[in-house]
């Protein structure tokens, strides 16, 4: 969780599209791994990751066509402090790991396909579509739809490609 907060704070200081997209991809990986551990299966986190990466691909293609030759540099101080905070948060999280969470994580790899485990998997998949998380699905659908609409409006269908190629004549 500390890594997510640190990445959110770094997002404010970045001004290049490539660094912003790297931070968003790292945020997506962290959030999807956290949700995978909370739900005891990774279907929801896999869907979240694919939806966010597909939206990021659209935005990345647009930004590279608009600002293709812009120089990318990252401040050394920011990289150093970010690395220190990530290292410190990883050490703290390893010291405070819940043994029950580790047992559930180990058990997900050692699945025996018996009736009780199938019932448990059915109930955990059922949790995805019940009360607390159905709003997340609707939010993801709305975000993906809004990204599609914004990309269509920005690109201008009747004006041709985003980046014009000049031919030598």
UniProtKB/TrEMBL annotation:
What keywords is this UniProt entry annotated with?
A: Electron transport, Membrane, Mitochondrion, NAD, Respiratory chain, Translocase, Transmembrane, Transmembrane helix, Transport
Q: Which GO terms describe its cellular component?
A: mitochondrial membrane
Gene Ontology molecular-function annotations: NADH dehydrogenase (ubiquinone) activity
Its domain of life?
Answer: Eukaryota
Where, per UniProt, does this protein localize?
A: Mitochondrion membrane
Catalysed reaction equations from the record: a ubiquinone + NADH + 5 H(+)(in) = a ubiquinol + NAD(+) + 4 H(+)(out)
As recorded in UniProt, its EC number(s) are: 7.1.1.2
Give the bilayer topology: Multi-pass membrane protein
| Top-level EC class | translocase
TM stretches of this protein: 43-66, 78-97, 134-155
Q: Where is it mostly found?
A: mitochondrion
Q: Which family does it belong to?
A: Belongs to the complex I subunit 6 family.
Q: Please report the name of this protein according to its UniProt entry.
A: NADH-ubiquinone oxidoreductase chain 6
Q: What is the lineage of its organism?
A: Eukaryota, Metazoa, Ecdysozoa, Arthropoda, Hexapoda
């Amino acid at each position: 969780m500390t890594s997510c907060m640190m990445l959110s704070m770094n997002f404010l200081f970045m001004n290049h599209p490539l660094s912003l997209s790297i931070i968003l991809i790292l945020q997506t990986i962290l959030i999807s791994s956290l949700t995978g551990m909370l739900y005891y299966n990774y279907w929801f986190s896999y869907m979240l990751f694919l939806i966010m990466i597909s939206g990021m691909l659209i935005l990345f293609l647009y930004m590279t066509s608009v600002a293709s030759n812009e120089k990318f540099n990252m401040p050394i101080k920011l990289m150093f402090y970010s690395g220190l905070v990530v290292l410190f948060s990883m050490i703290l999280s390893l010291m405070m790991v819940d043994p029950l969470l580790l047992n559930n994580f180990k058990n997900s790899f050692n699945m025996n396909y018996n009736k009780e485990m199938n019932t448990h998997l059915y109930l955990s998949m059922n949790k995805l579509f019940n009360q607390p998380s159905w709003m997340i699905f609707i939010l993801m659908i709305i975000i993906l739809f809004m990204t599609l609409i914004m990309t269509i409006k920005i690109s201008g269908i009747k004006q041709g490609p985003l980046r014009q190629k000049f031919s030598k004549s």
